[in-house]
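Collaboration report, partner site 2.

Our partner group contributed sequences for two proteins of shared interest, and the home lab folded both. The records are reproduced in the order in which they were received, starting with the first partner submission.
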Amino acid sequence: MSKFSDLQLIEPILKAVQAEGYETPTPIQLQAIPKILSGHDLLACAQTGTGKTAAFALPILQLLAQRGVATDPRTMGIRVLILTPTRELASQIGESFTNYGKGLRISNTVIFGGVGQNPQAAAIRRGVDIVIATPGRLLDLMQQRLIRFNTLETLVLDEADRMLDMGFIHDVRRIIETLPKKRQTLFFSATMPPEINKLAVQILTNPARVAVSPVASTAEKVSQKIFHVDKRLKTSLLIHLLGDARVTRSLVFTRTKRDANRVAESLVAAQIGAAAIHGNKSQGARERALDGIKTGATRVLVATDIAARGIDIDSVSHVFNYDIPNVPESYVHRIGRTARAGNSGMAFSFCSAEERSYLSDIERLIRQRVPVLTTPDGLEPEKKSSGGGGGGGGPRRPGSRPGYQGARGRPQGQVSGDWGRSRR
């Protein structure tokens, strides 16, 4: 079994990795780190949860350390730019560089929208080696001439396909056009749609190629189940399943921001700790929601696909697809949030009659049928809110719905030990 010490990493980085509790490199790390250290451009097909952040962070830190670190970062300029689609992912990448670079005098800063730009511009003026940025805010700062990349050595595009989905690809192209042509470029994407493949061809020079966990493959230790259920009963079914004590930390995926809010409110009304996260939430609200699920103060995080992409939460026991995604690859990304680091996990999907074509697309992609469970009896339709807000506010009184978890924590109407009887 390979170890990080087999990858010719320097001692300060090995100590930092050990301090983070990692012993064995993941497949993407084993493949990518030596190629990056050798100076190659890289084209990597790897989805969330494969360890790809460390796959580029560790060798980048080592290359910067080996090339020399300035006493005053302002004298050397920005040396690394990492473009990423969401502010949550940008923050997590920044934390990773800080943790892995503890023994090195290498600085980083994170730039994203939704907050004031002055602290970010001040950090740039003070001097920084590594910038982790979302495209929109970075382009704003560039247009104001508050940031320059004439000293850039390395460019990383992380989750390039998601940047395409979110409409950032034109901003990404405009940013890249301003960068030095002589640089090392590392390109990470879970999928390779035609426009992303075209971009990779344009900006990479003789790249080394690595691929792990193709998007069509689901994590081996995820137990996948489906309920065919009337859409009006989905919230009641979710509350029912959350009554089981085995659901310790869970992600619930909805298709829209509005539904994320509605479902979270219904769970809170059922005395289940829940919070919603989506693009309309303020940065402070998003950070509080993430802190709650990470610390255990909140059991359930309700999210849209775009908001959840790149969020790294350990020990997720269950994923609930409240809505079946209309893009089949999103199903693979969603359920990949559980069963990480050798753990097992459960993924439950709620399929209404209107969503059956989406389920068929998913089963074609993953090349397997998802076992169907019998929907429990006694579920109640969700009540519409009196304010006409387009969704129910949850149970009228504690315990009025199946699955309400009472004061003693004993779920009512709990699904049997095997989570119900499979129908196929």
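Second partner submission, folded after the first:
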Amino acid sequence: MSGFLARAARMFIIFYELVKFEHTIFALPFAYIGVFIAAGGWPSGRILLWVTVAMAAARTAAMALNRVIDRHLDARNPRTRHRLLPRGVVSPRAGWALAAAATLVFVVAAAQLNALALKLLPLALMILTVYPYTKRFSWLSHFVLGSALACAPVGGWVAVTGELPWQSLLLAAVVILWVAGFDVIYALQDIDFDRREGLHSIPARLGVAGGLRVARWLHLFTVVVLFATWWLLNFGTVFLAGVLFVAGLLLYEHSLVKADNLERLNLAFFVVNGAVSILLFAFVLADVLLKVA
């Protein structure tokens, strides 16, 4: 029994590393933002549970697909050749199986929510599946990734109301712009590889300085849409404070990465953007709960 548990624990650790489950931090808070805004307060425990399961499953399926589809590119890229599939620690068959299992859980979770959530699920799955291929033919891949994560707030809203109102699309626009901006920054480290392999990205097309300019504009528009969300959805001063805080974090992110110095790129990408999603959710939650107090 102890040997079985040890093997199970090892497999869990391996698959956890494969899908980088901690990166769920980028999308899950936005799903909760959609849930709490749509509910106008605390949602039911059932909705919170199934939204969490759906998000974790979708994220796992997306990352497993990404790793399997890109395994040959990852093996040739000095930055990614240490990943589990290129090293042979995980087989492609196991990666496909994980993606299929996570997709099944995603379907079950959507079915527990409402009919519209289930109807929209094929669209979400299509975006998750298409994303890994887009870099092969279009520099718009950054926006496809943003669209994949934008399913989080929209899905959260749909989970509560069973409807798809225009307000949820404001949150989707915020996520698309924010994610595209930080993905452009992340792609800076692969410029040479992308150009050599004929892959498409904004930095590969415009260079480091050009990529940073685009990322700044995308994050400026992120803040603009957040202000529009605050205004159009009639939020209070706490939400406004959150918008200002996010603006400050994005400004700090761009201060970390310079065209001639990318040493702090990982700090800008992982730490700052993780803080953006968590803190924005905290401010939204506080604003929503203060309204119903």
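Feedback sent to the partner group on the second submission included the following. DSSP finds 13 helices and no strands in the chain. The chain has one domain: 23-292.
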